[in-house]
Amino acid sequence: MEGVSDASLPPLPSSDRPEAAARLRDALLGASFTADGLLELLGAPAYAALARSETVPALRATRGDTPLETLVRLFLLQQPVPRTRVAGVLPVDVCLEAGWLTRTGEDGLAATVDVRPYGGPDGEDWFIVSDLGCAVGGAGGIGSRDEGVVLGVGGASMTLAGVTVRTPVASVLDLGTGSGIQALHAARHATRVTATDVNPRALHITALTLALSGAPAADLREGSLFTPVRDAETYDLIVSNPPFVISPGARLTYRDGGMGGDDLCRTIVQQAGERLNGGGFAQFLANWQHVEGEDWQDRLRSWVPRGCDAWIVQREVQDITQYAELWLRDAGDHRGDETAYRARYDAWLDEFEARKVKAVGFGWITLRRSDAAAPSVTVEEWPHPVEQPLGETVRAHFDRVDYLRAHDDAALLEARFALAAEVVQEQVGLPGAEDPEHVVLRQNRGMRRATRVDTIGAGFAGVCDGTMSAGRILDAIAQLLGEDPVLLRDRVPAQIRLLVEQGFLEPAG
Length: 509
Fold this sequence. Notes:
19 strands; 20 helices; single chain; alpha/beta; three-stranded antiparallel sheet
């Protein structure tokens, strides 16, 4: 594709010039225009400010004329730079011909897109391309510009990248690719990556992101949701950070789904099951409505397609006024005409009230195609800090689901378990009391869960080192405490099952 634009957005660099992207990449790396290089040049405060779309600290830190300072001003701060300075860093003629640069003023050059260094999970030096002024998100008033703009990497994008299961697979589908960050991650562990988007500009920018990052090209397809996917096509992994915002209308392509309420997220989840290969994962970020008179967990369970296990985690809940204000500010509406702002705010609340929505939840949804006779569907609220990346934690959750599904209580008592790494025990009670009021096991990795156990559960977990069966451990505890071993064997498997399910205990051998 040659450089494209619509009536109101500037042309993009050509994605049909791989040699130009390769030469630009070499020049950027040669000047240390990388995540590490930026941090060293700008310092932590200015580097963090850039992530908030605040440019003044970075402008102050790049008042010199080194190659790296020149590139920061050009691609991150969108400042015109004299051609003589740029010529010492970049192949100017190549970049002009391919559309990465444009002439400005008498002898100045300016970037046509934002190019932001991004560190891959194994230290790769990647570059995320986005429209000018759209690298971080909407806090700067993205919505005041054309609805077709393509944003760069935001917190939601990085959250999805972190929770995605990264086992090697044959095929990945990135649904609603945007700037291509999920496709870029997928290229590391997939033989074939397909990326779709309803916005052709996003597909073009994804091609640029992949080329400039030195990643293989993806199969790019235009269309909404699963429409671009052919009838017989299935995938080992599906990922999507969709336009999940629940809003009246579809004013902004990058965030508004265009369906009523949370129907877009529900549709994606429900249609994903038939597109998954056996054992394949589908992982999404989503918003969902909390509707008066409905249990929000039951609402989400109804979304899960047949043949799939699911793990749904609600990370945040906002009341409808907080939610409306968040996305009005995302669009920059609070900085415009006050009458128009109030009208849009009213429209948002009218829409929620008509649907009896009292709050909106945000979180991640993971499906795994198991075709089990009794699928496992876990819906939970976990607003506490977690340790990213969580991809391995997500994969391990479904491994434990398979294990518990295959082991009844009698089989659990015959099995051996080991306490997971970095689990600590906390005892809570009044100072000086002979016995604690309750005991808490806490993880310091992954989900960082905490769960209350009784003294027998705590003692059982503490002894588990993979050498003795659960039944023998319970018999020893019964003898030590003077308990009936038969009663313990009958009562404790439910607690063992919970500790395995939540990752405190791991099957040994």
